[in-house]
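Escalated from tier 1: magnesium ion holo job.
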Amino acid sequence: MSKKIEGIAASDGIGIAKAYLLVDPDLSFEKHSVSDVNAEVQRIHGSFDASIAELKQIQARAKSSLGDEEVAVFDAHIAMLSDPDMIKQIEDEIKNDKVNAEQALTDVTTNFAETLAAMKDNKYMQERAADVKDVAKRALSHLLGKELPNLASINSPVIIVAHEITPSDTSQMNKKYIKGMITDMGGRTSHSAIMSRTLEIPAVVGSETATSEISNGDQLILDGLNGVAIVAPSQEEVNDYEQKAKHFAAQRVEWAKLVDAPSVSKDGKEFEIAANIGTPADMDDVHKAGADAVGLFRTEFLYMDSDALPTEDQQFNAYKTVAESMNGKPVVIRTMDIGGDKPLPYLPLPEEMNPFLGYRAIRISLDRQNIFRTQLRALIRASKYGQIRIMFPMIATLDEFRKAKKVFMEEKQNLQKDDPKIGDNIKLGIMIEIPAAAIFADQFAKEVDFFSIGTNDLIQYSFAADRGNDAVSYLYQPLNPALLRLIKHVIDSAHAEGKIAAMCGEMAGDQRALPLLLGMGLDEYSMSASSILRSRSQMRDLTTGECAAIVDEVLAKCQTADEVEKLVNERLGNE
Ligand code: PEP
Ligand code: MG
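Tier 2 regenerated the structure:
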């Protein structure tokens, strides 16, 4: 009998394949004394040799699918397994203490890793500590005769089943074989979810039980459209989902035809469907999706992918590349949103009890103005190459916006000494992601050029529910009438002052929300590039007047998110 596992629909699409459990086997062991130390030393050598052979094999397979940098990691691991100093220390412990190979391996490698991790100012060495642990785990798995999962070695279609998927996991994946992903942890706005959409891999997150209910090799159907996985499906279910997958693939082909089409409603009103990006490398996907704009450039990735603060010129080049590549279409660049869940190893920040409510984003920028000024100068200089708009994250009060604007004006005036009009066409906007700013939008609208509603944080703060904590993910309710009221107030406030209202949180690409946002008159919808064509297609079937009437009815009658969803579906004649 098949079994259903429910989670959060995180990335569209349907996958059917065998499960690949990305979970480490139990590598626990007992310490014991040995009489034949030579045999134990031989076991260590055997496990190191087997590990090296395995790594070489993985590396050879990975060469065709991964970049040089990812493949180089394996060289570093092989070198560690040949380190005479480490091997000698393990041999000495076995001989002197007469302990089993597992124990000596663990003691010595733990020691090595701790020494490296203690080099606080040396990020490179700290990362090597993680490598030592990885290598030790591999050797231990050979000593215990248990196989480790290995993403880079996957060479047939699978669905990844994991507790959580990290960026380093994704860097090892060959997209060709990954037909889907399901995780125990995470919500729709968690890292795994955003990443799966970028990679266009169907995904279900926050299932809580996937890794305990699914075994390696189980046949699986993964439905990323509805947030369900079916374990050991019947032939009938497989047939049914194959049809659904075909239908989805056909839809994709239809959507792809809209790549050069305008983003218009059925009654001919024009809107902007924009892309969220993290680095200039994302621009390929943006063009493939035919985005009308870049609605959010999360610049913190420039800071996170580097060993030191990026220089003005490094930043200038990144912003210029994106601006030029959009060829005059708007590019909204957000100043760095560091802190919270995005730490910087080279910028030590105080430990905080509540990092999401702490020292982050604009709060850091206004406090450490040298960092902020460098970024603003790079942005103003890059504005010569396209239509750059600057957006400040995590604005809570008007004072913060005024201070940020003042710093911007000072830097602009400095640069204008050499280049009189530089930066004059830059629009300044704010993220609306803190409830205080949303409530006070009518006043903000008098001073800013545009709003972009960051629903990932606005929902987390409005419902007091950590966006990464799956225990409270039920409170991620984009359709909750309380939130809809708040959003409508923000959009109306922008329009009352003739300003642009955009949204760049994940809600902007949510099919259930689009009719409501269109009905409220949201001007710009910024989302993962992979959602753009679907949204454009959906928009072309909706009439603004009809959607506005649905909004009025929803706000007058509905009390829960479920009621909202039901009413919208009824009015639009969806099933
Ligand atoms: C948001 O909060 O909705 C947003 C777009 O920003 P981020 O996801 O980077 O916090
Ligand atoms: Mg945010």
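Residues 442 and 496 are 8 Å apart (CA to CA).
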